[in-house]
What does this fold into?
Amino acid sequence: MRQAQGRGLTTIVPMGTLYLVRHGQASFGADDYDRLSPLGQAQAERLGSYWRERGLRFDAVLCGTLHRHAQTLQGIRQGLPGTPEPLLTPGLNEYDSQALIQAMHPAPLPRPDTPELRRQHFRLLCDALAQWMAGTISPAGMPGWNDFADGVHAALAHVRSRHTGHNVLLVSSGGPIATAVGQVLSTPPEVTIALNMRIRNSAVTEFGISPKRLMLQTFNTLPHLDGPAHAGWVTHA
It folds into this structure.
C-alpha cells in the first residue's frame, strides 16, 4: 500500500505484486531444448500447487510464446485452477543461445554432455552475451540487444500501467527475467549476465507494482521446492 495526497485528502493506493517465473527444466543438450523435461513439468505443477495451498490468485498473466513457457504455464494452471488465460508476449522470449555461441565460435562444438563441456558452453555463452550487449556481434536471426531489452521493458510497462493493486504472473526465461531485474536496479551488463546465469528452473522473482515504478522484493526463490521431499528437484538448465 502507498499513500497519495490531494486536496487535503489521503488516498490509499493498493500495491500489487508481479511474480516472474522462469520456465521449468527444459531439455538441455537435446536436439530440441524448447521442451520441458518430466522434472520440469513436475516443478511447474508443484509451484501452482504451492500457491493454491496458500490461497494466492492471479488477476492477469503474461507469457512468452516459446513451448517451454506454455508448458510451464500449463503446469502451474494444473496446480492452480482458475489462473487466467495469458496475454502472449513475444517480448518475453529468450535469446537464442546457440546463435550467440556460433557468432563467437563458428566451428561446430561437441554436445555439452559432460561437466567440462557444460562449463565450456556457459563460458562461451557469457562471453557472447557481453559482446552482444556491447553491440560487437550480431547473432544470426536475433534482434539487437537494445531491441531485446525494449521488449522486456514494454512488458513491464504494460504491467505497471494496467495492474497496480493486482497480482500478476509472468512466465518467461532467465534472460528476460535477468534483464527485467537489471532494468529495475540499473545494473551494468556484467551483473545482468551474472544474474541470468543464477536463475533456477521454476524460480520466482517478485516485483512490487506501483504506477510509477517496479520494486524488487525477492529474487530467484524456490519456496515450493523447500524441504527434503523436493531436494533433488532444484535445477538450472
Notes: The chain has two domains: 19-94+145-230, 96-141. Residues 96-141 form one domain. The first strand starts at residue 2 and ends at 6. The mean pLDDT is 93.
